[in-house]
Amino acid sequence: MRRPRVPQREAMSALARLLPRRAPGWLAWACAALVVALAQPAWAVRCLTNSGQTSLTEPIGNVASYPTDAPDGYVIWISAPRTTDGYCYKDLGGAGNLNIVDNIYFYANPDGKNPAAWGLEIGIRYRGIDHFGAGSRPGTGVPTGFAVPPCSQTDFNAKRCPKIPVSITYQVVVRKKGAWVQPPGDVYTVFQFDGEKGLNNTNPSFQYKLSGLQNLKPTPCMVDVTVTPEPGIVKFGQVQSSGNGFSPAVPRKPFSLALTKKCSIAVRVDGYFETSQTVRDGLLVPQSDSNFGIGIEDRNGHAIAFNRQFVLTQMPANVSYQNIVLDAVLKSFGAPKIGPFTGTATIRLFIY
Description:
Blueprint: H1 8-22, H2 25-39, E1 45-49, E2 55-59, E3 64-67, E4 75-78, E5 82-90, E6 102-108, E7 120-126, E8 129-131, E9 142-148, H3 153-157, E10 164-176, E11 187-194, E12 207-211, E13 216-219, E14 223-228, E15 240-242, E16 245-247, E17 252-261, E18 267-274, E19 279-280, E20 283-284, E21 292-297, E22 303-304, E23 309-315, E24 321-332, E25 346-351
Parallel strand pairs: 2-12, 3-13
Antiparallel strand pairs: 1-5, 4-10, 5-10, 6-9, 6-11, 7-8, 7-10, 11-12, 14-17, 15-16, 17-24, 18-23, 18-25, 19-20, 21-22, 21-24
InterPro entries: Adhesion_dom_fimbrial, Adhesion_dom_fimbrial_sf, Adhesion_dom_sf
Protein name: Fimbrial-type adhesion domain-containing protein
Domain Fimbrial-type adhesion: 217-349
């Protein structure tokens, strides 16, 4: 005889009540152990800023456009270099937590969202390398090079486990991946600092969040740039050294950025001089022992920083071409090293 159908919620409730009586003893024990295991967090490290902050939210800013037909991998936005000064420490006692070296990682996308569904890819630039595809599970993070050493249970109970100072400089890179779809939310958690076993879900560890995702929108406009002298090489020729500097004191060579706008709308064009070489006091250092650096200045003598976005020009709707003249300059830190030198930077354009 067919039993009367029980509504789904009632059926689940009945099963929960009957399971301890009808299941074998070992199964009931296993279920109980599973509940305990799931309830007991295993993540042992916490990272905070020196002021105790658990997050930084950085706004993208105004509407950042990119060409509608831009290929996947096209860089839409890069944050300024950010440095998180703080400390990491053992946050949870017990075997398997205290007795291991906890390497500190960038764990990407801890909220488990899918930027590719919005036509975006969001990565972490660390020590000159862009990391896309990092994850939030153990073994998928980006190592920072910092680590929290083991600590005994006795020291943990007495709150004597060390707080390891960290100073981590990074950038966030947003690039195109697929077709643009308006993100459902405006804030995205890019990463969380944590230890060997993954995310600390018990006590918040430092997170970097990006706001303004809905400001990233494609536009049917392209601005091309040509660097002259071509092919984008600025030659200083022979430069005279004089004691702890140069003669003249600040050698300079002009170069220009020729901008061609392929649309009939008004846009703001931002520039970004990107380099993977060492930057000291705003100057690109050719070699560690060169004792001088290469800088970029506008025609008013104002320095333009490397690896930082800056306003290059405004192009009205009826203007399709502009030529921006800049200067490459040499500045010494002491007695310059004699010999040939090279420095490399790439100019990126961002359209607003």
